[in-house]
Amino acid sequence: MNGAWMAAKLLRAAATLLLAVTVVFIVLRLAGDPAEILFGDNVGEESLIRYRALWGLDQPLGVQYLLYLRSLLLGDFGLSSQSGASAWQLMMGRLPYTLQLGGVSLLLAVLIGIPAGVAAALARGSLTDRVVMLAAVSSFCIPNFVLGVVLILVFAEQFGWLPSHGTGGIWHLVLPALTLGTGWAGVLARFARSAMLEVLGQPYIRGARASGLTEGRVRWRHALPNAAIPLVTILGFMVGGLVAGAIVTESIFAWPGVGRLLVDSVKLRDLAVVQAIVLMVAATMVAANLVVDVLSAWLNPRLPAATGA
Amino acid sequence: MDVALAVPPVTRVDTPPLLALWQITVDFAARGGGMVRVVHGIDLDIRPGETLGLVGESGSGKSVTCLAALRLLPAEAQIGGRIAFDGADIARMGAAQLQSLRGGRIAIVFQDPAAALNPTQTIGWQLRERLVRHQGLRGEALQAAAIAALARVGIADPAQRLEDYPHHLSGGMCQRAMIAMALTGKPSLLIADEPTTALDVTTQAQILALLRDLQRETGMAMVLVSHDLGVIAESCARVAVMYAGRIVEQGPTTEIFATPRHPYTRGLLDSLPRIDHVVARLAAMPGALPQPGRLPPGCSFAPRCDRARPACVANMPRLEMQGARALRCLHPHDGPPAPPGIVQMEPGADQQGVPMVEAQALGLRYAPRRLLGLFARGAAVQAVDGVSFTLHRGETLGLVGESGCGKSTVARMVAGLLTPSNGALRFAPERNAAPGVPAPRFAQLVFQDPLGALDPRQRIAAQIAEPLEIHRIGNAASRRAEVLRLLDAVGLDPALAEAFPHRLSGGQRQRVVLARALALRPPMLIADEPFSALDVSVQAQVIELLAELQAREALTLLFISHDLRVVRRICGRVAVMYAGRIVETAPAERLFGSPQHPYTQALLAAVPSPDLGARPSHQPLRGEPPSPLRPPPGCRFHPRCAMARPLCRVEAPALRELFQGQAVACHVAHGDA
Amino acid sequence: MDQVTALAEAPPRRARYLGGKVLLGVAVAWLALMVVAALTAHMIVPFDYRATSLEARLLPPVGLGGEFPYLLGTDHLGRDILSRLLHSIQLSMAVALAGSLIGAGFGITLGFLAAHLRGVADSVCMALVDLQAAMPFMVVALGVLALFGNNFLLFIVVIGLHGWERYARLTRSLVLAEVEQGYVTALRGFRAPPLLIYRRHVLPNIAAALIVNFTLSFPEIILLESGLSFLGLGIQPPLTSLGNMLGFGRDYVADAWWLPIVPGVVIFITTLAMSLAGDALRDRLDSSLNL
Ligand code: SF4
Ligand code: SF4
């Protein structure tokens, strides 16, 4: 791996993050006096003044910006206007649930979507291909909130087999994970199919066949690793967007994750918490992109990162 | 004949064939549904040890036939007929049998070597994989065999190259690696499908020589597929000419090239410009190649054939055997063609008058690419370095060289599309006569890629009129008249004025591009590889058109090309570029007749010629052009030069005039040739 | 590469679905129905969509025990579901269309500017695009709504922001590729003014790809609108949209399942039909472009 390339990527990631923070800062200041927004009407004038002094809100904007950066670096995202607890801690308390739900859903999606897509590509034009593709397009066109409600209706209300909301054992995970994973599986199946077909149409696949390599070797040692390159990108995108993707599902199933916290905080206009979650999502996305870049460079020696030059 | 040295003799007809094709047909699913037949019943025998050339222009079905023989076409393609290899029917083989045949006894190498290698695995990985498959090697023997395989195809430093990925290697190197892989199965038949088409001419000569050597060494048979008659003539003992999915003529190369009997074969040979002489006018076949699925009735060649009679349109003539030759024609030519009318190329310039363009020590340096403006990626590239020339009024100057030598960059600088980073360009005063809009009315650029050169969504007339419109010349009616005049001047039917570009053939599109370039009546044209995307038979038409326009309108022409044969036909004076510098410039007659620079000599020797007397007698130039990132010091040609002296390694030679008008940048050349 | 070789190479990559042409026909017919419903909803509804009726609450659709004239039954306030559905379709479609147009207009303009100006302006535009792409849009939308509260106009603007970065990136790369084409070089050789090149030549040539992007992002916008409304953060009562019907309906899933299912099915079929039609359109445009 090339050091300068890595440094440039890191710098770019840091720049994106800084840009995100700056945008949030500007938008927050545009929206009005942060002290008032954060505390609303439920504190007296005196505490507002104290808060302003505490946070340097009586200082010039530039200083405020630096103070803002400093507090973020120290992990201080402000206090929830609802509970008065630290926004950071509130968020971190919910994160494991989101990771649990998102992780299981993603695993489900990968295990179903990618093999289905590859199988469809290998049997292009066949009945399998057509069925898989119809299932794929249907599964990512069905919105989470529809699928979730249908699943609840059938499995929780009608048959009473599975719990419809909340957490608990593994059974509580089934419906939300199915809801969340279905759409992702559809997306992955389509991507896997087109990536695989793209590669299968390349001259080097014909070259491999022409040199008498077995079909298995052509498929699994030549085609699949090359098709994996674009799949890594889309997977990274999914991992980065995990929190956002789970928002609706968590709300339907009353799953106590970050997504639901976000929705509740938006409804109550609890800005400190919203801000913390927005920045966390941005950071996750940037980190996921970084991982994707490194993985792609490892998979694809043509990228500048992989070459020494 | 000394021909026998280069080419193995024709095998006797009675040897049983190694590969036999009987009535091969190939159909593809058409876009609009239904099937299109692209190969119409090919009969072909390849005998052990022989070299068969399969020649034809695009759409002739030559590559598809080869792929069909190995069942390498996509599953949608329907293959008819019988394919027998050594008596076994390939069409009936099971997967395992077929797989051990492919890359085993029959190997194939493809046109675009860089694309035919897996980009994410090293050369070594891919080579070892094939060695395991075909020779069952393991461990150290495997590694040793891999190294030996690369060494055998002339790759220097093989152990090192095994670790490289395909994108690290040049096209020529990739092709060598492909050939090494093809040889792992010790094939008795090698199919080479346009193996050198993507390569430069000196590299092409190396690869062809390598294939000939390997064939002599191993005694394998070879099918060489090419659109280039010269390549076929130099390598093959027997040749089959294909047109629109059929074989039209077949026989020993010497006979076919000496007395082509089919009008298409003869037309093809006549439309190919030669490097050693200039004919007064290339005999161009009219029209264009038919598209698959839209073949004319009867003989597919009839609409373009000057010997066609009513009977030709009624039925497709059959392929008749006549001794060693086969012919599909009702009224073939008899006897050898008339000798061409050879003319002298005049420099055609007004050497005394005001020069149109004077380039002085032109240089262009590309700054290194940067990431985030911080980290330089790679070094600066000096694409062009100290190029000086004068283009006289009415002259046709050819700028030749292999890819990456900087010739197109020079063209773009002269056209004003790039700004030189060093040196100066001086133009004739008329360029600055009308302030505001001088440059486009002075010189126009015509380039490759006839598809991209026209806006796909605008009618032909609108595109030709557009320059007039931009410069507010005339009104709608006068522009309309001008469009019709221009269409006529480039030999296009005025009915095409309202057509969209996709309805036009490649040759017609190139004519439209010429018409558009001439709309502002510029005194000068800059043509950058204007013909390289065209088939030979179509190319000849456009070459003649350009030559005619140049003479009629007294155009000054800067002509950029990698194809020395075309340059020979068009240009009065030629400048040869190598690695960003001009190494030799001379009047065409002198440059082609008595080249002085070692590189020019090698370049000329590398051009394959269909004329049987002109076979390459010496070793092709070794090595490859240097990377523009790290050009060698001193004379940039010295690592490849057979005449290099110690001085060449340190001091760059300047252009010296050796004869009247012939200047050479070489320490050694003295003009005693 | 010649045509014959082209035929022998890469097979088409587009998805083919079970049902093929029939399915596509049904999809197009459904979309036409949706357009008609959206255009005429206010004229054809049998009831005022806000009219409540305490006697006719939670009636099932006709055929499932319900009775005329409440074809699709009634909700918890006794409002006619069919009437509400038609109005929801109208509003959802209108919001999605307005949003798409805003996003497309903004993104395409920015893409052209970035491609034309290059250099620093390009870098700034692309940094913004990267930033937007790095933020899942749902989170951005929620953040904006949290900050500024909810009102109809702001909601449309938020929806409109969705996907602008894809238009910008797509436009920029298409323009950059297009101006490398020979005909643009030739036009520049004629000193054609850039605006003429972009308007007369580049835009018509990249329009097909932009239209395809439009058809692909439209269903996403419908989903975004209905998702936010479902969460109670989008369209607010007394206005009604598909997502908002579903959001209120899910509380009754146990007793009156048709409340959430009817709008849910409409959303699903519409997005599916849109995707199928978009794919078919892309197929068409692609093959018309490749010679
Ligand atoms: S058969 Fe007739 S049309 Fe065909 S090539 Fe011979 S003479 Fe020409
Ligand atoms: S200067 Fe030397 S190295 Fe260069 S071409 Fe002449 S002899 Fe060869």
Report on this structure.
- The complex is a heterotrimer of chains A (about 300), B (about 675) and C (about 290).
- Chain A is an all-alpha fold and about 300 residues long.
- Chain A has 13 helices and no strands.
- The longest helix of chain A is centred in the middle third of the chain and has 36 residues.
- Chain A is flat and about 80 Å long.
- Chain B is of the alpha/beta class and about 675 residues long.
- Among the domains of chain B are: about 100 residues, no CATH class; about 220 residues, Rossmann fold; about 60 residues, no CATH class.
- Chain B contains 22 helices and 27 strands.
- In chain C, α2 crosses α3, α2 packs across α11 and α7 packs antiparallel against α9.
- The longest helix of chain C is centred in the middle third of the chain and has 37 residues.
- One iron/sulfur cluster (SF4) binds next to loops of chain B.
Give the key terms.
heterotrimer; A: 309 residues; mainly alpha; MetI-like fold; 2 domains; 13 helices; C: 291 residues; 11 helices; binds iron/sulfur cluster
Q: Tell me the series of helices and strands of chain C, N- to C-terminal.
A: HHHHHHHHHHH
**Overall pLDDT score of chain C:** 80
Report strand % of chain A: under 5%
Largest sheet descriptor of chain C: none
Give the CATH class of the largest domain in chain A: Mainly Alpha
CATH topology of the largest domain in chain A: MetI-like fold
Average of the residue pLDDT scores of chain A: 83
Gross CATH architecture of the largest domain in chain A: Orthogonal Bundle
Instruction: Note poorly predicted spans of chain C.
Output: none
Which term fits the overall shape of chain A?
A: flat
